[in-house]
Design brief:
The complex is a heterodimer of chains A (639) and B (292). Chain A is an alpha/beta fold and 639 residues long. Chain A contains twelve helices and 33 strands. The radius of gyration of chain B is 23 Å and the shape is elongated. Classes of the chains: A alpha/beta (639), B alpha/beta (292).
Chain lengths: 639, 292
């Protein structure tokens, strides 16, 4: 036997005063009495102070000594070698993914899982240790190895559900690392089985699966995205998918709202297991928050009966959100001696406020993109500039000789300026060779390496693009690539693409550009969750010479809804937002695979007996003996 | 506190008046003996026998009827009251209140008797006679008696009522009233002494005193019981059950005293030692009245 606190054994010296006090105690009290004739009648029947009487006193002393011994032992915290060898390391993995919010089990799947976890804590034996790992979007150790039951229970009670997909296998891997090489390691997974690869868990011998939940059906929005139309500057396209993860047909409708104004209501009729997918085209200049909601969901009626409301146990996927970026009107000053195609490509863009002049103005209008066709001043205007087919040198380049028929062989596909562009096989005769003052960024180049379309560095914050190609000689203006190229350039000058601000799945980490936020001297930035909770936001460090607006990385975003980044302490001004949806068919399907349900063996809970440390039982012994000694002292039990 | 406070005699005088007014003739006052003799009050006639005094022949009846009848007269005698005071150490148990009460009772009864022109004698005893106030009469003697009682102290080895009565009888005492004031913790049995009084036709009355601690000692656990009369020690372990047995035995003892007195026509008064002596005297008188 070993002791946790061996110095406590010094308390055993208390045996000396105990014996001394006992000796003092056995000196009987002298009680004078008028006559002993009555007492004699009583005690003559049985000899007083018999051997048994003496023995009772001895028992009393022994009880006192035993009390002291057990008390000292309990304070010394003894433990047996076998206890340590038999102790277990249990990792309880609690799935707190979105599907665990389902209420097909009262009060919810997660609450049931927590109850089972608490039962596991109650079943811990002395020396056992338990860790709690959450298998949400990413595995998280809620509590490391601990044998303290109250702390474990508090940790389990504090588990909150997320809207994220589950990560059971990574959590198991994490749990294995927590167990290490312990010979009695055990992994207990409390999940609903609605996760990828749940069947693969069955083959893992050190994993005990406990499946929570029923085969409840669910209908959910599994895809919801919106983007600006590439064709219609005012238009946008909505991609939505609704899955029926139930064994019966479901009817209902999908309501779309933009800034709380209904834009469409679509009837739904879903067969069992069907996924309904649609791409819808709508128009809006201002953009805003788009919401999709499943409403009026019913199970179709059998013949001769009314339709019954569909009992949807999971509310998380009944709504989905997206953010439609607003379109920004841009002022464009086109300086050209005359090119109808060029003028029309800007006029056709409904987001452009175009002014056309034939000569270089003396003053450049503010907040305007300058498009210089052929006419180029030596000193470029202090604005964003798109130069097409320059006829002379400028501060940024020197004009060289002609390239007769350059063939574009290289293209920077990663650049937003080249989005949706493919310039292969486009002939660009009579392109000008340019010798740049500072090295340009070539967006499209000829086989000789000469830039055909390039951005060149300018004094911040101005940007410059040059397309040294004759529009009159080639067929670029006839191609659909040209308006796209112009639209990309305008978007690039505008600072963002403006086409797509994708809704992300729960648990994602998002890099958000914060328009209008000064890199230096901005007010405190906060991340506002859909339920109103706030977290501080720290700007990502900007690289030197980067003209991009400041950005921040936020996440993981574990809650469905619109997350916003606000600037300012009170009443923060929203500078960026992103939509977060469940968008996970596996989480929306609340039915665990049959193979998992059938193969699962319930984890064996430890017996409730002898789950306490040895000192606990010693303390109980002390209490019991103290009671015995009290009776012995009072002699109430005699005869 | 003095054994006989200043108002003691006043209270005793009051008791004396009460006893005469309420219990006249029933207890002590002016008893007439059944002895016929030279009294002045006619009793009855009897046949003349040779040797009788001619002076007591009823000449009127002889003249009228020729019968020789002798007139008999009732002789009037004073009553002898013997007061037996238990001076054993058990009477001083606790704060000695029991012994004080006993002496007050002796004094009070003696005063009442002396006031009725009776003779009283006080005999203090433990395991034998340890003190005696000789037979006397006259209220004036009460102060001497009180002084005698104040001097009395508890002592001896054990209570022995039989020895006390034996001492009384050995002194050739005339029949009369005997009042025994004691706790009757007599290991040989209180009946032995009372039997002798009864057989000698004493008019006996028992005043038994006890303390509440004697009726219910309230002892528990391991104790050394010290008998204060004989200093014997007994080591015992007292349990609740023992206590119950003790209470039952004590109650049985008290009952046996009452039963004995009722069976043999003795007056009996039992009281806890905290009862005032005058109240106890009245209680005793009532008991005697009922008995008669």
């Amino acid at each position: 036997m070993s002791f946790g606190v061996p110095t406590a054994l010094w308390w055993s010296l208390l045996v000396i005063p105990v014996i001394a006090l006992y000796i003092l105690k056995v000196r009987l009290r002298r009680m004078p009495t008028s006559t002993t004739m009555f007492w004699n009648q009583i005690f003559d029947e049985k000899p007083p102070r018999s051997i048994w009487e003496t023995l009772k006193h001895l028992l009393s002393l022994l009880a006192q000594l035993a009390i002291l011994a057990f008390l000292v032992l309990s304070v010394a915290d003894p433990y047996l070698p076998g206890q340590l060898k038999a102790s277990r390391r249990i990792v309880v993995i609690v799935d707190n993914s979105a599907s665990m919010r389902a209420i097909d089990v009262e009060p919810s799947r997660l609450a049931a899982a927590k109850q089972k976890a608490v039962a596991l804590v109650d079943g811990l034996r002395f020396g056992d240790e338990m860790a709690v790992v959450l298998a949400g979007d990413h595995p998280t150790v809620a509590l490391g190895m601990s044998g303290h039951a109250p702390t474990l229970k508090r940790t389990i009670e504090a588990i909150v559900p997320t809207d994220c997909p589950s990560s059971i296998q990574p959590a198991i891997d994490l749990g294995r690392r927590l167990i290490g090489t312990h010979p009695h390691g055990q992994l207990v997974v409390l999940t609903d089985g609605c996760s990828p690869g749940s069947e693969a868990l069955l083959g893992q011998k050190d994993v005990s699966l406990d499946i929570i939940g029923t085969l409840a059906g669910n209908v959910g929005i599994t895809q919801f995205q919106v983007r600006r139309s590439l064709i219609d500057p005012l238009g946008y396209e909505v991609l939505t998918a609704v899955s029926n993860a139930s064994d019966g047909s479901v009817e209902g409708r999908l309501e779309l709202e933009l800034n709380d104004v209904t834009v469409d209501i679509l009837p739904l009729k879903l067969a069992p297991g069907e996924t309904w997918t649609r791409s819808l085209e709508k128009t809006s200049l201002e953009g805003g928050r788009l919401t999709a909601a499943l409403t009026k969901m019913t199970s179709p009626a059998a013949q001769g009966s009314e339709a019954t409301p569909f009992q949807d146990p999971l509310a998380s996927d009944d709504r989905a959100y997206a953010i439609l970026p607003p379109r920004k009107i841009q002022n464009v000053l086109l300086v050209t001696p005359g090119n109808l195609f060029l003028q029309k490509v800007f006029e056709a863009n409904r987001l452009v406020n175009l002014t056309v002049v034939k000569e270089l103005p003396t003053e450049w209008p503010p907040d305007t993109i300058i498009v210089l066709h052929r006419l180029v001043p030596q000193k470029l205007p202090p604005r964003d500039v798109l130069v097409i087919d320059p006829d002379g040198p400028s501060e940024a380049w020197q004009l060289g000789d002609l390239l007769e028929n350059p063939i574009i062989t290289q293209q920077d596909a990663a650049s937003p300026l080249m989005t949706h562009l493919k310039l292969d096989n486009v002939t660009m005769p009579k392109a000008r060779r340019l010798t740049f003052t500072d090295p340009p960024h070539i967006l499209a180049g000829a086989v000789s390496g000469e830039p055909v379309y390039a951005s060149f560095p300018r004094t911040s914050p101005f940007k410059g693009l040059v397309l040294p190609v004759s529009l009159d000689e080639g067929d670029l203006t006839f191609r659909t690539a040209f308006p796209i190229m112009v639209a990309n350039a305008l978007s690039w000058f505008g600072g963002s693409s403006g086409e797509l601000q994708p809704a992300v799945a729960t648990g994602a980490i998002v890099h958000l550009a914060l328009e209008g936020v000064k890199p230096d001297g901005h007010d405190p930035l906060k991340l506002l969750s859909p339920n109103g909770a706030t977290k501080p936001v720290i700007l990502a460090p900007a690289s030197e010479g980067d003209n991009k607006p400041p950005a921040a990385t936020i996440g993981p975003l574990e809650e469905i809804g619109i997350w916003e980044v606000g600037e300012g302490d009170t009443d923060p001004k929203v500078v960026a937002a992103t939509a977060v949806n469940l968008s996970n068919p596996l989480e929306s399907d609340l039915r665990a695979p049959d193979s998992v349900r059938e193969a699962v063996e319930r984890p064996l809970h430890a017996a409730a007996w002898f789950t306490r440390p040895l000192w606990y039982y010693l303390a109980i012994l002390v209490l019991s003996l103290a009671t015995v000694e009290w009776f012995l002292f009072q002699r109430r039990w005699i005869r | 506190m003095s054994l006989f406070p200043s108002d003691f005699l006043t209270r005793v005088e009051y008791l004396s008046i009460i006893s005469r007014r309420v219990f006249r003739g029933s207890l002590l006052a002016q008893r007439r003996t059944m002895q016929l003799g030279s009294g002045i009050e006619f009793s009855d006639h009897r046949e003349y026998a040779a040797g009788d005094d001619f002076r007591y022949l009823d000449w009127n009846i002889y003249a009228r009827h020729g019968d020789l009848l002798l007139k008999r007269f009732q002789e009037e005698q004073d009553l002898h009251v013997y007061l037996l005071l238990d001076c054993s150490r058990s009477m001083a148990f606790g704060d000695g209140r029991k012994f004080d009460l006993a002496r007050q009772l002796i004094a009070a009864i003696a005063y009442i008797a002396l006031a009725d022109l009776d003779r009283i004698s006080v005999m203090a005893f433990t395991d034998g006679v340890v003190g005696e106030f000789p037979l006397t009469r006259g209220k004036a003697r009460i102060l001497q008696l009180m002084s005698f009682l104040e001097r009395m102290q508890t002592g001896g080895q054990e209570t022995d009522v039989g020895a006390a009565v034996q001492g009384l009888l050995h002194r050739g005492s005339r029949r009369g009233m005997a009042v025994l004031v004691s706790d009757l913790f007599d290991p040989r049995g209180f009946q032995r002494g009372l039997d002798q009084l009864r057989h000698r036709r004493f008019d006996a009355h028992v005043l038994q005193l006890y303390r509440a601690e004697e009726a219910d000692p309230g002892l528990l656990g391991d104790v050394e019981l010290v008998d204060i009369e004989n200093d014997s020690i007994r080591k015992v372990t007292v349990t609740e059950r023992n206590l119950r047995s003790y209470r039952e035995l004590f109650t049985a003892h008290q009952s046996s005293v009452r039963e004995y007195c009722r069976n043999y026509g003795l007056g009996c008064t039992q009281a806890e030692a905290s009862v005032p002596f005058d109240e106890l005297i009245l209680r005793m008188m009532r008991a005697t009245q009922v008995q008669r």
